[in-house]
Specification:
The protein is mainly alpha-helical. It has helices spanning about 5-10, 15-25, 65-75, 90-100, 105-125, 135-140, 155-175, 175-180.
Amino acid sequence: MRRRGFVKALAAVPAAPALLAQQAPTAPPVAAPAPVRAPSEDLPVLTASMPDAAADMLPRFFTPAQFSTLRRVSDLLMPALNGQPGALDAKAPEFLDFLIGESPAERKHIYRAGLDALNQRAMEQFKKPYAGLEPAEAGVFLGPLRQPWTLEEPGDPVAAFLRAARQDVRTATVNSREFSSVAPSGGGRRFAGGGLYWYPLD
């Protein structure tokens, strides 16, 4: 080998490892694991609730005053009796708020006009809304229910409302889950059609 070729070969030896290092693939950097954070003591504690307890409704069709009057009338028409739930226990007013809101305009008018008239007459006679009357005071306005039934619709708004509400409150109560879950007891109210009930509304 000539001296010139030997010198070139020696000069190339130190550069080989550097060239190989440049061509070798570099591994991606490994990310450091995220630190484990201790659970905060400020997090709220969630408590479980029964579905029915979380499903209480707010009135959507009736005004607050109308709905309070409807609840008072419903309690008078269908009170709890002999261990069986009444209209308030069965949430009949809440159901009627939905039902009447989806009814024809004429039926909506009967309820709204009757409830407003009851409140107005209570304020005129007792100086307080119908929902705040004592049982004896509230019963004064239920006189139309004692009148004989006729085919003609009553012209008085309170009488027309009471005529419709008596049937609606009774039907909503006896077809509720609360009413159907209580076995009929001796001497209590008995109604056919048990076991078919409406569910609480969302």
